[in-house]
Amino acid sequence: MSVGTSNAPGGRGTGRVPAPRHGDLTGLGIDPDELPDGLVVADEHGLVVCFNAAAARITATAPADALGRRLEKALPLEDLEGRRWWQLTDPYGGLAIRVGQPERNLLLPGGREVLVSARYVRAVPTGPVRRVVVSLRDTEARRRTERSHAELIATVAHELRSPLTSVKGFTATLLAKWERFTDDQKRLMLETVDADADRVTRLIAELLDISRIDSGRLEVRRQPVDIGAAVGRHIQAYVAAGQPADRFLLRVEQPLPGLWADPDKIDQVLSNLIENAVRHGEGTVTIDITATASPREGEEAGTSVTVSDEGPGIPEESMNRVFTRFWRGSKRGGTGLGLYIVKGIVEAHGGTITVGRAPGGGAEFRFTLPVSTPAYLA
Questions:
Q1: Which of 79, 111, 181, 257 could crosslink 301 through cysteines, CB 3.0-4.6 Å?
Q2: Comparing C-alpha atoms, which of 251, 247, 260 is closest to residue 228?
Q3: What is the pLDDT of residues 71-82, one digit of tens each?
Q4: DSSP H helical ranges for the chain
Q5: Within a 10 A sphere around the Cβ of 334, how many other Cβ atoms?
Q6: 223-265 pLDDT tens trace
Q7: Are 166 and 196 in contact (CB under 8 A)?
Q8: Can you tell me whether residue 240 is helix, strand or coil?
Q9: Distance between CA atoms of 2 and 5, rounded to whole angstroms?
Q10: What is the model's pTM?
């Protein structure tokens, strides 16, 4: 554990001896080096007595080089305008009612950005500061989140622009020149507007799903689901839309355990996987439904659905990115959000989903759900 203190009078010497562990941590049996965030603690003299492993990693400073030094020397921080943070905040002076500093972005030597917050520990309110406890966090995770949000906004803006432009153009044209068009022309324009409105509705639904998945608020309303019949309905819809019936092969193993799941969300999963196979794959689209072991502990039975095609498949180097946001298997359009949502729905059911190479050479998606029961029957 990276804890130490100075033994010089007044705390200003350079000698260092091991100090007792910080009571608040050891009382809980916690070593500061086990903490995920950087922890730096200075005593009443402003000398560093704790510099844990995460702080060493974030600052690239060895604990031995920090322990016993003055806080502003061991942790030389500047704000984004180049001002020295410890001089600005003056933790040991200034107003005695202060309790700390809220989290903010600061710079280490070399320009590396970190998230820093501080707590001023006093024995009594408005008394002298006995400890300054500093928390350090790397900004990379937050930057990745911010980049992901920015990409999502850009994608949504791009996807919304096209249908909304179409809707606006056709409606404005019809309003201005209604009498000039034949009934067939009017019907064609209104059908286009209707299709584009559906596209906008789907995109908004995807955004709501992503929001619920990211926040852990995706609700699953379990009902009995006939998974074979659900797949059959999707196949019939494609055949009615012009796909040859012999392009689809549905194989259902009997008997299947009774499946309790959210029928609307399972339809969403099936729709996305079958659409991917039809749009991006080639040859026969095969859907296998089998009984299998449950992916959830404490349950024996599960149901597995495998969707495969005979197309070029997914490159090996891309398979670990298939279920991430904005991944697209080809340049044939789409938001790249569908498989991310599929994974979130399957996992909300307590299931698992994988991707691999099909026996025919194409892509193979397999998801497995526990048969489950609704809460009121459990």
A1: 257
A2: 251
A3: 999 999 998 888
A4: 23-26, 53-59, 63-66, 71-74, 85-89, 140-177, 183-215, 227-240, 263-280, 338-348
A5: 19
A6: 999 999 999 999 999 999 899 999 999 999 988 988 999 999 9
A7: yes
A8: helix
A9: 10
A10: 0.60
